[in-house]
Amino acid sequence: MQTPADPQDRHEYPSHWEADVVLRDGGTARVRPITVDDAERLVSFYEQVSDESKYYRFFAPYPRLSAKDVHRFTHHDFVDRVGLAATIGGEFIATVRYDRIGPDGTPASAPADEAEVAFLVQDAHQGRGVASALLEHIAAVARERGIRRFAAEVLPANTKMIKVFMDAGYTQKRSFEDGVVRLEFDLEPTDRSLAVQRAREQRAEARSVRRLLAPGSVAVIGVGRTPGGVGRSVLGNLRDAGFTGRLHAVNRAFPDDLKEVDGVPAHRSVRDIDGPVDLAVVAVPAEHVPDVVTECGEHGVQGLVVLAAGYAESGPDGRERQRALVRQARTFGMRIIGPNAFGIINTADGVRLNASLAPEMPRPGRIGLFAQSGAIGIALLSRLHRRGGGVTGTTGVSTFVSSGNRADVSGNDVLQYWYDDPETDVVLMYLESIGNPRKFTRLARRTGAAKPLVVVQGAGQAPPGHAVRATRLPRATVSALLRQAGVIRVDTITELVDAGLLLARQPLPAGPRVAILGNSESLGLLTYDRCLAEGLRPARPLDLTTRASAADFHRALSRALADDSCDAVVVTAIPTIGEGAVGDAELAEALRSAAEEVPGKPVLVVHVELGGLAEALSAAGRTAPSAGATAPGTGGGAHPFRPAERLPTAESAQAAQAAQAAQATGAGGRMPTAEPADPADVVAPSLTPPRSPKSFAPEIPQLPETSQTPHPHPHSRLIPAYPAAERAVRALAEAVKYAQWQREAAEPGKVPEYDDIDERGAADLIGVLLERGEGLTIGVEETCRLLGKYGIGVHRALPAPTPGAAADAARALGYPVALKATAPHLRHRADLGGVRLDLADEDQLRRAYDELSELFGPPEELRPVVQRMAPRGVDTVVRAVIDPAAGAVVSFGLAGAASQLLGDMAHRLVPVTDRDATSLVRSIRTAPLLFGWRGSAPVDTPALEELLLRVSRLVDDHPEVVAVTLEPVVVAPQGVSVLGATVRLAPPPARDDLGPRTLPAY
Description:
It is built from 28 helices and 39 strands.
């Protein structure tokens, strides 16, 4: 359909339609409206399109665009005629346009709500998902302009374009007439269209990260001519790690005759490299980075790791420099790790990438690590590979990303990659902030269903230079919402590593029942107490006595694991004295072999300063003997009761070197709050030069070869060991809660339908009320009417400005009544004496009125009201709020001190399901008061859960309802009574999770 162009645009340029998108292959493109200034770009683009593609677009041979065509395709009113282009390097690679039409198919204006849509994609970029991305964006634009339906006519042979429309997930009609396929589809998002969109988002973002973590060639830009310096260090780290791809050293100051640096081909510019470069590590000062980015973009580099500092962390000028960097990189379709980054690591045998400031490659393993801060990155790598724990030495890292200022690639992107990465079983993340909580919780929920996700949330500050919506929710609320999404939320990096080591190599427990056995009664009792404190159900500890042999441990562990009343086993061990004392390696082998007999239950060890047990547990899963290997039972040379002295090692020097390099580039980030030292982490200072290229950890004795392989199967039984009972039990408790969440997530709850909900009536009422102002707390009568539309009744409270008015109100309501002061300083404060209950007649009411006036002042200050007495029960509070960052949240707690002083509130994201409502009521610490605590009558929790579900429906159906408070809600043995309610209305905050796929704007 060709539409004549209007001589004058009717709207200003809609800059909010501009967006960067990730394409199917992981590259990026920019989507923006087509304007009159794009005539030359359009002509150039059209010349590069094949004759076949032109034929499919115009249904006839169309070799070139006429001047009239160019004018029509570049002049839009941005209402009835809209054109969008996908660009890379400023040049068009695809276009899409719609023209509004009437019922007869001719050009029309609003209120016509149908439009014809047509695409044209450059042949070189077909198959990259460009048309699918453009369809999402043009559909969003059309909905904004009041268009509800698209129509498209496609030649039957144009199967690629038919597939684009058919796969989009919209409700469609398809017909065939006059040799043309006609497709019509509604633009209202459906569950299927959102699922399609999010699946495409996951594949695209995962591939964009994969291109960074598994490059075929790497150029390090800024390599010094002499040893030392950041660029030369990263080049050495890449080389020493055994990177399997092509490696290049780049520095514009290299002499013309310099051919190699440390055996790596040397070049003065990326442009001089013969062949593609997938990843560039940029180690030049910030002022030189723009020139480097241009060279990389023109050479077709796919991604950048920018180590340089001097960006948003340095102030306003740096923030603008950072935004310019992101815009420049995206112009060329590149993604960025950084700036101010520590780097990235991939230990896979086929990659061996250490594009970071870490001087040595960590051991290969099944744990994915993400940290914004370089300092935290160093700490995580060090703790994972320095621990004296059982799985240390065999459980290592699959991939590691330390993103610095996180200007482009974020934790969400890396989570998309790890979701279906076969090399990663457990994800550990240190997040200083969550820039897009809606998306993160969605991704976390999906990832958690497949593999554990353990998170430490830092100071809560947004990364430097990020313009993200700040959440107004308390930190505890955010933590609760993360747990609802399946995140294992811990408080310190020590707990992060403890949980990761358990989850990486042990099965999930089937329940909270714990068996405890060991050779120390006191350590067993300490473990028992910690289990109770963490909400586990421990059996009485089995004391094997200090005379226990390795065989005794084996038999006891085998019996415990075979017991159907046991879900997990904690083994406690202390050093023993005398002839026949069990050796570390002997004990480790006994535990390992017993655990393998019943592989479905987790086993943990709590050891007290056993110098070799942790290493022996580790070695039990390895085969390669070392030159100094010792015989089983000797504990690797450790004294049987005295812990082996930890000698100075090279690691402290290596960590110091990495920290100094991070500081030099700014990649260190903000230092975390100091934690108590891990006994297994204390290493004496050393001046030994860095070792190369073995591992990040100190040398530990290895045992002679066993039947295990050097890199065991992901589910082989490698037993984690902890130096303290509280750490082992805390890790186990987190595993128990995660396993329970995973079981419940497999059968998600439902959002019930209620026949008495009047959604349309509520919408009409909200529309009328919002006409009064942008944001308002509506009056009592309007609140009752609105809540009534959703089946939520509120007890009437009649004003009582005089004793006579109070008596009239009581007669109207019926005795017995309550008299309440509603002044702000007395509202919901029964403890101050501003409430009189069970007033049976007018005499009692008048006496109560006089008492309140005498205590608190005249009625105009008290603002007294009269309310009919509700059945006695437990006073609770129900709240709902729409947070600009996290979305809508429903909260529940007991009224009064429990929620106000102790913060005992539980929270769930909207929409709340029936399962969510059930768990919400039971999640608060004071929940026993609802279920007959100390002989009291249990209250009607099903009615309370229904109330929570109705409130959730209200705020989910009507985002204009930005806050609801029901307080108090009296839950009686039969029914609930809402005695007070407030509702706040406002235009709904923008939803960035329902629109088309976009990268964060800069």
